[in-house]
Amino acid sequence: MIKSLVIGDLKAKYPLIQGGMGVGISLHNLAGAVAKAGGIGIISTAQIGFQEPDFLKNPIEANMRAIRSEFEKARAIAPEGILGFNIMVATRDYARYVKEAVKAGADIIISGAGLPIDLPKFVEGAKTKIAPIVSTAKSAMVICKMWDRKYKRVPDLMVIEGPLAGGHLGFSRPELTRYGVDTPQVSQTYRKEDYDREIHGIMDVIRQFEAKYQKHIPVAIAGGIYEHEDVVHAICDLGADAVQVATRFVTTEECDAPLSYKQAYIDAKEEDIVIVQSPVGMPGRAIRNPFLEKVDEQKARGERTKIAHCYQCLEHCDPLKVPYCITKALTNAAEGALDQSLLFCGSNAWKSSKIETVVDVIRDLFRSEVSE
Description:
Elements: E1 5-7, E2 10-12, E3 16-18, H1 28-37, E4 40-44, H2 59-77, E5 82-86, H3 94-104, E6 108-111, H4 119-122, E7 129-134, H5 137-151, E8 158-161, E9 167-168, H6 173-178, H7 186-189, H8 192-213, E10 219-222, H9 228-237, E11 242-245, H10 247-250, H11 259-267, E12 273-277, E13 283-287, H12 290-300, H13 326-334, H14 358-365
Parallel strand pairs: 3-11, 4-5, 5-6, 6-7, 7-8, 8-10, 10-11
Antiparallel strand pairs: 1-2, 9-13, 12-13
Helix pairs in contact: 1-2, 2-3, 5-8
């Protein structure tokens, strides 16, 4: 039976978290629509202020203002809904982003792209729930042990993000090969049973800390959740409390991405979905396009794109060494300049065939009634 999602004093009608997508793909419009429909709407803070007039000169200040304004606009759409932020640990001034999200009124902060070891310190005294993203039992154990030892607390929610996810992935190249997802034909090669075993291992870790703290830690499974059958497998078969869905929401009317970005998903074929090496230092999943082809050609010649401006997005980034500026590549995507863009996507982006509404998507994901 599929039940509503309870995270402490928060209750979402649907056990659904809309995944954070940056830059500029999940902002107030998408997050607000999902929260209004009964899920949990998530705004990505990744260069969230890219539309601010002073973003080029003062990117961090622009991002701080945008955190507040985007949350206020999302709250206006969903006055009673659950709204939060996705904040990458790799972000420069990570603590400041978290504190600004708390001040804005975030119900929950979801954090990955690194291990959010000190996240509890940055939300101390606030009602904001915190949820780390993990991909392995090892990372789940590290976070839970550190939070237990340093802060005497456990996650309010744990997000398990598998190798079918979009954007930056919490796996090495050899791990992606082991799971059979390093080729474009993922639907034929993915070894689901192998990663299901890893999910069970993560849940074993969580149960240890549930027992110690005498409280339930809800789990959301992410990565490759696109259809009703995926929801049933995650919740009914694997025992998760919820799912996190991102790619399916890109091709909705409410998504903050430009129409050309959505059309790229609709036009993509399965063989167009590829694994790339991001300047962040992690493998990622994206749609092959002229931009990626140019990057590959430059790499083969031992060349790289000269970076004219640093946007101060990452804690560890050397503009003199990275193959291209990821902020520029992602803001180009958000502004519709697709041939100059990195088009992040999940493994199932090729299944997109039409523009839907958020309500349509949720109705399709949860075809049966959700129990209170």
